[in-house]
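Q: Could you write out the predicted structure for this multi-component system? I'm mainly interested in how the pieces pack against one another.
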Amino acid sequence: MLNFTIRRLILSIPTLLFISLVIFMLLQLAPGDPMAQVPLTVPPEVKQKMREALGLGAPIHVQYFKWLYQFFVVEPSVFIDFLTNKSFLFGWLPDTHFSMTIDSVTGELVQKQRVISWQTRSPVMDIVMQRMPQTLWVVGLSYVVGILIAIPIGIYSAYRHYSLFDQAGTFVTMVGFSIPPFFTGPLLIVIFSVSLGWLPSIYDTTLIVDSWATFKIQLMQMIMPVMVLALQTTAQISRYMRSAMLDNLNQDYVRTARAKGLKESVVIMVHVLRNSMIPVVTVIALGMPAIFGGAIITENVFKVNGIGQLLLTALFANDLPMVMTLTFIFAILIVLFNLIADILYGVLDPRIRYD
Amino acid sequence: MTALAPMAFADGERGRDGQLNIIYWQAPSIMNPFLSGGTKDLEAASLVLEPLGRYDEKGALVPYLAEEIPTVENGGVSEDLTSITWKIAEGMVWSDGTPVTSADVKFTAEYCMHPEGGCAQASKFGGVKEIEEVDARTIKVTFENAMPNPYQPFMGAQSPILQKAQFANCLGAKAPECTEANFNPIGTGPFVVKDFRPNDVVQLVANENFRDASKPAFSTLTLKGGGDAAAAGRAVLETGEFDYAWNLQLAPDVIAKMAEAGKGVPVSAFGTLVERIEINLTNPSSDLPPETRATLAEPHPILSDFKVRKALSMAIDRALLTEVGYGQAGRATCNFVPAPALYASDNTECLTQDIEGAKALLEEAGWTDTDGDGVRDKDGMKLALLFQSSTNAVRQDFQALIKDFWQQIGVETELRNIDGSVFFGGDPGSPDTFQKFYADVEMYANNFDGTDPQAYLGSRRCGAEPKPASQWQGENINRFCDPAYDALLDELGRTGELEKRGEIARKLNDMLTKDTMTILPLVDRGRVSGRSVTLGGVVLNVWDSELWNVADWYRVN
């Protein structure tokens, strides 16, 4: 298993490099201009100067290799420096300065150039880290909530196949599948914020939870986005759970278990459920990168300015370094979670061996 | 500064009204207006950074950091209009307590004029020859030529003053590296940045060193960004979560419906933004080689005829378009320069639709429907036009209505819409930019900064047209070329007297509109924002930042 993991990890390096090249070329080919949002009152020659200041004049391969260097060398070294200098965990290690370089003109110690966003002129990774908490809170929690609701529904729907509960469950999941969040989101806002006035329609990313009162506010502002997203997750996972349970319920080993006189709850919850979880766990693992990717539409509807909203605004502003970095981080996560899903298969099902 | 606030509210201690919540549906990305031309960034920065003078809601100049607005009469502007001398008012301090000096002002110019900085406001410093510090509070700007409008540098939201001490190491190519300074600039304005989260939210607190001890009335300010105009409108007008929402570009009935909730009211004001149809005077046919396509070498086979252009204008019902698209936030107009009053021509001829007159004009020009298919033709060529615009719900409604108007006079129109980031992107490689104009007519909106239309009118100068030699950059979208127009422009550039400038500008406006029908203005678009019923002191200003007088805002109980 270890061999397999190492082999896969090494193989993923050329894969990721190829992905980064494809993303870069696609972004180069895409139409658009980072200056498109600048008002028409700014003369064209000024816009041209601004483009040059962003480094747009450089040849394409230079831009690509510059990004590669910044992303794979400078950013990790900045992270290591942060760990050794400021972090709580590794702060005891001697301070490192991997990301620093001597300025050729002044001779001062300055930081190497990081991946800089065109819109904000600040390091992309700093903004990504700033956006992580709200995305993980809202999107991550919705995933957990969705799974917690979906699994019991899936189990019971399969056990009471074609019962009223199953039909209702199928109906709700179909609704969840087919109604997009840009409809359910505003609908909830109109009901709970505008008409009833119970919940805020705008998420406050600056809220610091340090007391019961603030915890309550945090809970209230999270409910709507979390439920909108959880509806989607529930719809998907409960269908998988139901079909996996159905596959197993007709197996011989289930009949044997019942024949042995085991209680029905033990048959279902121990024997059937464990075997049915194998495909479901992979689906859950493969869905993980999407959490980090945020929920572009839902984040925008509720103004939870997380990673999804960041990607969207960057796309609108043609902020290529930001779009490139974000999509590449998603690519890394997808490759990583695919690997994790494959390993989980082996862990859950001893019959599957890769070596 | 404004006499609008009743005395009972204008007095009191700083920070008495607590928290102020503002929502901008486009989130600010940076607090340095010199590195971003985006309106959202300029306005967010205007809470902190201030210029020497601003424009008020009527477009008049008011001093901010300066003692007074320099004019020829008070000796601040030289008789030959080549220099302007500003004097910083006494006792002006930065939020860190240090005094504002002429060194800061001079440094700001150096910062923006640096060739490698990519300064978004470089045009404000165009024509500046020299900037001298006369003494600690006096600064003299000398121009290369006579500047009838010398209020370009250090005036308005586009050109505020930066603190030299903070930005000294951020010149030129280093400008983007100063993230800390770009996010937390030290200013003289009523608020100080506490926490800046790019494209998300800005938290500010009252400036303890602000020049007026009773202002601002709010102790903290949150400027939230993101979402869309509808959500921003809802948060102010319907749920009351926010106090002020910027630029509510929504259908008039949507805003009216939201306002019924009674939590807030829409406020509107008119500036110079005009939605117009630009006519291509050159031939955009794809049969032509790329070197001459849509350039002066190939006049347009149909639209070079004044009568056709006039007929196209006569067929349009501008009042209907305004009602459908903008409601209270729009006024039908025939002018390229609709405001300020001094420069606005009394041209109203186009406001009445005249289908029959348009038909007669086309007959006169030789366009008749010989084959009875409902589309006029002449010498075997159909009167068919390609009409392009950017993707936007209101624009597509307009396109459909105009297509219908033109169909009534026997003109066939093919509609096209292009995503705004491409259309306005200016990529010389793309065939779809508004500059390249590979279409017969196109529609978009434009305006000018400040109150002086000289540069705006100058955009239609012969030679300024986008062409292959200029990488398709240029502002003369119509490829309009008239020596008489250029001569009049030169005269405008030499004239300092306001009355005379107004007269020339109106004449130039008429040359582009009613005399030649090169530009068909449709709607003078106002700005609509929303304020909570509990927020007082808001004076919507289209000539400067909307937040220009935030120091005077207060809570109404």
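A: Regarding packing and overall arrangement: Chain A has two domains: 35-117, 124-348.
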